[in-house]
Amino acid sequence: MARIKHTKTELKRQRDALRRFERYLPTLQLKKQQLQMEVRNVETRRKEKAEEDKQARSDLDPWVKLFSEPFPLEDYLQLVRVEESVANIAGVNIPVLEKAVFNRQEPDLFATPPWIDAGLRVLEQLIRLRLEHIFLKVAHERLLAELRTTTQRVNLFEKVKIPEARENIRTIRIFLGDQQTAEVARGKIAKGKAPAESLR
Question: How far is the C-alpha of 157 from the C-alpha of 35, rounded, in Å?
């Protein structure tokens, strides 16, 4: 702990700092709670998307062997662009997937295998799910990083800054109180000596 001056100015400075810390702490605690809630929401959404992906793949199981036939799927389905926006959650910028734009060519039903329509639909769904997973992963990482920082700040205020300011105030008040008592005692001694000297 740094040495502090035992003056009224330092006492005022410490009191002001304590008031600032106590005013700012509830805001940090609220932000921490909000971030914890958002982290849980993102984790829930990630689990849901993982389940959707698992379900889509299990729906694919009965006829996935058909994909082993050489077929140029990329000629019929291409991801053209990914449109995204930014959401601000508790002061953290999170990328949000707005939509995935695909270029889909209609297959010639006579020249392509019969499973091509269903295959393209499932492939598009799996690509979308993969993109959503990537966006949710980025959101989760950013929210966790901000939550760690906010938690450190809350702990700093609760466990270090506020107790330190209170202790400094207590120490300065004791010192100033002792100094005032000593001045009063010196004043009484000096007052007592003055009449005694005037009698001589």
Answer: 18
- Quickly count: other Cβ atoms within 10 Å of residue 150's Cβ: 22
State which residues form the domain around 94: 8-180
Segment 5-14 long-range contacts (CB within 8 Å, at least 24 positions apart): 6/171, 6/172, 6/175, 6/176, 6/179, 7/172, 8/176, 10/168, 10/172, 11/169, 11/172, 11/173, 11/176, 14/165, 14/168, 14/169, 14/172
pTM of structure: 0.76
Domain count, the chain: 1
Position 168 in a domain: yes
CATH number of the domain that 24 lies in?
1.10.287.3240
The two structure tokens encoding residue 110: 């006579």
Q: Judge whether 192 lies within some domain.
A: no
Residues 59-79 have pLDDT tens digits of 777 766 666 666 677 777 888
Structure tokens at 29: 């605690």
**Which of 180, 177, 146, 187 lies closest to 35, judged by CA?**
146
Tokens of 147: 């939550």
The position carrying tokens 């966790």 is 144
Going by C-alpha positions, the residue among 73, 50, 38, 41 that lies closest to residue 130 is: 50
